[in-house]
From TrEMBL:
Gene Ontology terms for molecular function: nucleotide binding
Entry keywords, A to Z: Nucleotide-binding, Plant defense, Repeat
Protein name, as recorded: Disease resistance N-terminal domain-containing protein
Superkingdom per UniProt: Eukaryota
Organism: Turnera subulata
InterPro entries cross-referenced by the UniProt entry: RX-like_CC, Rx_N
Length: 106
């Protein structure tokens, strides 16, 4: 049951990424390429999760690995939520954020 939740969380993250106005983000921060790369990575994670969920019942190491991946997925969702909030805040305030030197999304 918990594994279904993980898959759902990852899928929701992908939906959030898709719903962001990538053109506006690119204009404001120049991050479009990095967000697209993150989206592709999350799609790969989703595929691996589905495979691992099938094996989970047979192998204890897979259960442990899934728990760690689940934790990372929740953290990634939090980061995306915060980023989306910041984009909306900047839009509401009508200002374009300035890129701070040394600030990068990895």
């Amino acid at each position: 049951m918990a594994e279904i939740v993980v898959t759902f969380v990852v899928e929701e993250m992908l939906k959030k990424l898709a719903s962001l106005a990538l053109e506006e983000i690119d204009r404001a921060w120049g991050l479009k390429g990095k967000l697209q790369k993150l989206s592709k990575s999350l799609a790969s994670i989703r595929a691996v999760l589905r495979d691992a969920e099938e094996k989970q019942g047979r192998e204890e190491s897979v259960k442990i690995w899934l728990q760690k991946l689940r934790d990372v997925a929740y953290e990634a969702e939090d980061v995306l939520d915060e980023f989306g909030y910041e984009v909306l805040r900047q839009k509401v305030e009508g200002s374009t954020p300035s890129r701070k030197e040394g600030t990068e999304l990895h």
